[in-house]
Structure formats: C-alpha cells, structure tokens
Design a protein that fits this description.
The chain is about 65% helix and about 0% strand. It has about 325 residues and is mainly α. The protein folds into 2 domains: about 10-280, Ferritin (Up-down Bundle), CATH 1.20.1260; about 285-324. The structure holds benzoyl coenzyme A. Benzoyl coenzyme A (BYC) binds near residues 214 and 229.
C-alpha cells in the first residue's frame, strides 16, 4: 500500500478543520474529508485487525471436535462463529474507506498482510482454549475498549459491539481455567502449562514498546489510539496478575513485582526478537495458518459462487417486478 503524506499539497484549511473536529471529540464519518494518510493508517490497522479475527478462528477451531462436553462444545462453536462476525464487521469498515474485502483477502492469502502475532502459536491442549479466552480475549478487550473511542465512526462502533461479545469469550475462558485450576493436580498442571506458554505472546499482542512503535505518533495525533501500546500492556498485566493469583496460578515471570507507589505489577523484559520473528512470518505456525486459510478459501469457492448466483437472481426478480 502506498501512502501519500500530508505535505505542502494537502489543503491546510481542510486539515485544520479535520484536526479541530477530532480535538472536539467528534467522530469522522466515511463521507467526511480526511487526509489521505489518515485513511491509509486506518486501512492498514483495520485490515490487520480483520485478518486477525479470521485467522484467530483456526487455533480454537482445532478443538471444536475435542471439547470435553456438549456445553463446552456449544460455547466454543459460538465463540469461533463470533470471531467470523467480528472479521466481517471490520472488513465492512474498511469498505467505507474504499477498499474491498476481496482485495484485502487477496493480500492475506498472498502472504502480504499482517495479522496478530498471537495466532501463530499452537493449541496443544484443551486448557489452551481456556488460556486464549482469558488472556487473548482479555488483551483484546483492553485494546478494543480504547479503540471504541477511536475517531473513525465505523471502526469505533464495530468495537463497541465486538467488546460486548469478547466479554463473554473472556468469561468462558477464565471459567475453563478456574475449573482446571481447582481440579486434579494434573488438571491444575495443564492450566499452569497453558498460562506459561500463552503469557508472553499475549503481552506481545499490544505491539512494540512505545519507543519502537512507528505508527503510534500519527494514530495518537488523529485520535485513533487514545492510549499507547505500553500503557495498555501495563493495564492488562495489572488486571490479569490478580486473576491468576485468585485461582492459584503463577505468572511465568521471575522479575514480576508489585510497585506499591504506582500500584502497577512491574514485569520482566519481553523477548522482542521472538516478536519480530513471528510478525516477519517465522513463528511456530505461520505457514500452517496461511495454508489453512488458503484451503478454506478454495473449498469455499462454491459457496461464494452460489451466493452470487442467488443475489443476481434476486436482483433480476426485483428489476422485473419494478419494471411491471
Ligand atoms: N502482531 O507501530 P506499531 C482477537 C505490527 S484479534 C502482528 O505499534 P500500531 C481475537 C504493526 O502492525 C485482536 N503485527 O503498530 C480473535 C506494524 O506493522 P506495519 C487483534 C503487529 O498499528 C480471535 C508494526 O508491527 N487486535 O481479539 O500503531 C480469537 C509496528 O507496530 C503486532 C487488533 O488487531 C502484533 N501483535 O499498533 C480471539 C487491534 N503489533 O503495519 C481473539 C487493532 C504490532 O507498520 N490494532 N504489529 O507493517 C491495534 O490496536 C494496533 O494495530 C496494534 C499495533 C496495537 C496491534
């Protein structure tokens, strides 16, 4: 994607008006004037977000056939279906910015698009489904509650609805962890093992630290981000450490300590080499995830063709009824 910068050619009066509206807390709507660079940043971020929802179905979908009972199976099915819906809301949001869902999916399938690093880790045990709901959806809620106040109306509104659903996802995940943690020693060990494997990747979901985040300044200036990557990560840690302790699990961080002055849980160094390796395409499951998406796209070709044929038939019927 090529971005045009806001420079001497931009209309200064329009830009000043646009920024004043954002400063006044107004939302920007699709037909409003916006700098090309704002549109580009939104498409970049929203498309990565939509792809994350879609690819995010894969690690959990892996356990639908192996859920331990009917209640868990129904809950997981509903959660995975919700994620598909979230992807759709956000792709619709990018369409309001002039980019089609097909174009974005082509980029994903060609391996040219980013999606959240977290979904490149494997789900090895049922307890991983608990850990994903608790940690991954928990992290998503912290991030997306902030994005629900983003300056772009269609994205902000999508976030409101998505956060409501993510709250149920988090509750079902934490409930799985609670039950395992108070079960047999083997069950508790499973829950701890999942926390050990998902903790650090969950912290990486918030992106690089503020000093290494190239997009943050612009997104903050234009009211898309209201809090920084590090602020949100700290908020997530503070919420989650207490929840782990409440069910007798240990955070896998020898440097974790409580700072009585700020009230924060201070955590150890994140392995940023691992983060950049994963977002660069070399995580534990990057290739597997893309192969699965490509297979699903190919196998779904007949569904798209049938839906299109049906839509054309309906449109023809509508035209002939209105011509009569
Ligand atoms: N993974 O300048 P920065 C869910 C990239 S799904 C991969 O800080 P920004 C769920 C970043 O894109 C929830 N890439 O970027 C679904 C940028 O790359 P480019 C997903 C990452 O945008 C199913 C570069 O690193 N949530 O809830 O200011 C089941 C530099 O970063 C990551 C969203 O997508 C990462 N973790 O801030 C269960 C939320 N982090 O484009 C649950 C929307 C950074 O320059 N997105 N990068 O090549 C955001 O809030 C922001 O985009 C981020 C990054 C905080 C993630």
């Amino acid at each position: 994607m090529e971005a045009k910068s806001v420079g001497p050619h931009a209309d200064d009066a329009l830009l000043a008006d646009f920024e004043a509206r954002i400063a006044d807390g107004e939302t920007i709507e699709p037909k409003d004037w916006m700098p090309e660079r704002y549109r580009w940043q939104l498409v970049r971020m929203m498309s990565q977000h939509a792809h994350s929802e879609v690819v995010g179905m894969l690690p959990e979908g892996n356990w639908i056939t192996r859920a331990p009972n009917l209640r868990r199976k129904v809950g997981l099915l509903a959660k995975v279906q919700d994620e598909a819906g979230h992807g759709l809301y956000i792709y619709c949001g990018t369409e309001t910015l002039g980019v089609s869902r097909e174009a974005l999916l082509d980029q994903l399938l060609a391996g040219k698009a980013k999606y959240s690093s977290i979904f490149n880790y494997p789900t090895l045990a049922w307890s991983d489904i608990g850990a994903i709901g608790w940690l991954v959806d928990g992290a998503a809620i912290v991030n997306q509650t902030m994005l629900a106040k983003a300056s772009y109306g269609p994205y902000a509104r999508a976030m409101v609805r998505i956060c409501k659903e993510e709250n149920f996802h988090k509750k079902q995940g934490y409930e799985i962890m609670c039950i395992l943690a108070e079960g047999t020693p083997e069950q508790k060990a499973m829950a701890q093992d999942s926390l050990d494997r998902w903790w650090w990747p969950s912290l990486m979901m918030f992106g690089p630290s503020d000093k290494d985040s190239p997009n943050s300044a612009e997104l903050t200036r234009w009211g898309v981000k209201r809090k920084s990557n590090d602020e949100l990560r700290q908020r997530f840690v503070n919420i989650t450490v207490a929840q782990a302790h409440a069910i007798g699990l240990e955070i896998p961080d020898p440097d974790l300590r409580h700072d009585p002055e700020s009230g924060d849980w201070i955590f150890g160094e994140i392995d940023w080499d691992e983060f950049y390796r994963v977002i660069g395409g070399d995580g534990p499951c990057n290739r597997e995830r893309l192969a699965a998406r490509r297979a699903a796209h190919d196998e779904g070709a007949w569904v798209r063709a049938a839906a299109e044929a049906y839509a054309e038939k309906q449109a023809a019927r509508y035209r002939s009824e209105n011509a009569a």
